[in-house]
Design a protein that fits this description.
The chain is 41% helix and 8% strand. The protein has 552 residues and is of the alpha/beta class. A six-stranded mixed β-sheet has the order 5-8-7-6-9-10, with helices on both faces. A two-stranded antiparallel sheet has the order 1-2. It is globular, with a radius of gyration of 24 Å.
Length: 552
């Protein structure tokens, strides 16, 4: 009897010790007082007021540096689902469920799945959060707080070369930041202070005063207080969000730590769901897109709305009334090489690669048809967030040629001068004054597109890719898409996407492959680029085959 009692006592003590170890792991990785504080910390709403201070107005969650990598601690995390009951009620945690781990297939809800290497995932609209959207959005804000609290901040982003156009630079810096986070639990402090033809810091007193150079003039340091917009502000104030249980942030802490631990082990990466990879990448992209006051003012200055029915206009805290759709239409430099006019049908996955010598643009009817499908699937009227090379002319075309849709839906766009888009060559070689204006419009339009719950446009475009990522970070869920250019997020624009699909072997490949960062074609003597202008890039195949030979 005494022996049995001693055994029971030992078991109880071991269980208690395990609980205490888990407790102290979280305390080391996430600030203790945050767990006792209100669930959501109030942060500046930069859509409604000019941000304070910036550059040095550090968020307490991201202001410290962890001396020890918590992911190396000799403590096991709870089993999936043990500490995440609340998260699972609202949205799939980063760690997800083991059965939802089929390479590049995203599961966003019951009977809702999307193969990312495709052109059409609009059916996933049926699984959007609906009335739970404010809670899910608030959890996204919380997730980024946790990521910044857990991470170590050091160095500056190394892939954001100043001469890269805005979309390309942001995508590449997101890739490098996410890989650093996955592999070392590190995030850059911010952008490299280097000049860029796409930003003239001398035009902005704030940047002169703070001695900010290049793209750092528009984007703050990554560990600053999060730059919230109207939607997040409304989500935090929503009555349903105020009922979030007190342990929700602790669950998020476990979720982030568990995700990082599994992702760090290459052999275990495919145990994580595609959606977990995608959302984590999106949150890292959002952390780096922290607007400074000049960019806040640019957006406020040029934003216009055409509201046809105030009664049906979605309030920011009622996303179930109208569906917000981001629509990216390419014109300008991307159409300069096409001689026979705009395409009348969207391109399929097996369509031609679109390198700099052959890029297609599409009739406005192609986008309107996609929006009609969005309305049919959702059963809702639309709030359309339009971004294009000159929104004013597109709005005139919509009113003239599509009067029914124009009057049925609400429209939001940025009214930049037509002169900004009047250039003959590609953006990389346009004159400096045009580049500066185009850079300003690109940063503002990316923020504008981030408002949508659905994406219609160009995922072959790096600008479109970054915008789609920021949408997912804002809504903290999968964003259904229809891409007109025959390219998914996983494909580079100069690839023939159907040919590249077999070589998109996992989510890391989908998210991070960029041959300019990781692969030098000259090392192959140009062998795989012999027919580049006809067949497009095949470097992904070469890259994957080389990794397989090396045993990766």
């Amino acid at each position: 009897m005494i022996v049995r009692s001693l055994i029971v006592l030992c078991v109880v003590l071991l269980l208690l010790l395990t609980v205490l170890q888990h407790h102290f792991l979280v305390k080391r990785s996430l600030s203790a007082d945050e767990y006792q504080a209100p669930i959501i910390l109030k942060t500046p709403n930069r859509d409604s007021t000019v941000a304070r201070g910036s550059q040095g107005n550090k968020d307490r969650l991201g202001s410290k540096t962890n001396d020890k990598d918590i992911l190396e601690a000799d403590v096991s995390t709870p089993k999936a689902g043990l500490q995440r009951s609340y998260l699972k009620q609202l949205s799939q945690p980063l760690g997800g469920n083991k059965e939802n781990t089929r390479n590049t297939v995203v599961y966003s809800g019951k009977n809702c799945e999307c193969e990312l290497v495709s052109v059409d995932c609009l059916d996933a609209i049926r699984c959007l959060p609906g009335t739970k959207a404010p809670q899910v959005m608030a959890l996204g804000v919380m997730t980024r707080q946790v990521i910044k609290e857990v991470a170590k901040f050091s160095g500056r982003t190394s892939s954001n070369k100043g001469f890269y156009p805005v979309g390309k630079g942001l995508q590449y810096s997101s890739i490098m930041s996410w890989l650093g986070w996955i592999r070392r639990n590190e995030l850059p402090i911010g952008m490299q202070p280097q000049s860029s033809p796409f930003v003239n810091e001398a035009r902005y007193p704030f940047c002169i005063e703070k001695a900010l150079t290049g793209k750092a003039c528009f984007l703050d340091e990554y560990n600053t207080t999060e730059d919230l917009g109207d939607l997040e502000e409304a989500a935090i104030e929503n009555e349903s969000t105020k009922k979030v249980p007190s342990n929700a942030k602790r669950e998020l802490g476990w979720d982030v730590v568990e995700f990082l631990r599994i992702a760090r082990k290459k052999e275990s990466q495919n145990d994580l769901p595609a959606l977990g990879h995608l959302l984590s990448f999106a949150h890292i992209a959002r952390i780096q897109f922290a607007r400074t006051p000049p960019l806040v003012e640019i957006y406020k200055k040029f934003k216009r709305s055409v509201i046809h029915n105030n009664a049906l206009a979605s309030a920011p805290d009622s996303p179930d009334q109208r569906l917000k759709v981001s629509m990216h239409m390419r014109r300008g430099d991307s159409c300069g090489h096409k001689k026979h006019g705009y395409e009348t049908k969207p391109s399929m996955l097996d369509s031609v690669n679109q390198n700099s010598a052959f890029r297609m643009c599409y009739n406005t009817s192609v986008y309107i048809d996609a929006l009609k499908r969005v309305q049919t699937i959702s059963g809702k009227q639309l709030d359309v967030y339009l971004a294009t090379d000159h929104a004013g002319s597109i709005m005139e075309e919509l009113e003239k040629n599509f009067p029914v849709e124009y009057k049925a839906w609400n429209w939001h766009y940025l009214d930049f001068s037509r002169d900004a888009f009047d250039y003959q060559r590609m953006i990389e070689v346009a004159d400096r004054e045009k580049q500066e204006l185009l850079g300003e419009t690109a940063f503002a339009d990316i923020w504008h597109l981030s408002h949508g719950q659905v994406f219609v446009g160009h995922l072959g475009s790096r600008f479109g890719k970054v915008s789609w990522l920021l949408q997912m970070a804002r809504w903290n869920t999968f964003v259904p898409f229809f891409t007109v250019d025959g390219h998914s997020f996983c494909c580079e624009i100069d690839e023939q996407c159907a040919n590249a699909k077999p070589w998109v072997v996992d989510m890391e490949n989908c998210l991070t492959f960029a041959h300019e960062i990781f692969y030098d074609p000259s090392s192959q003597g140009g062998k795989k680029h012999e027919n580049y202008w006809e067949d497009g890039s095949k470097l992904r195949q070469v890259f994957v085959e080389k990794k397989l030979k090396m045993g990766f």
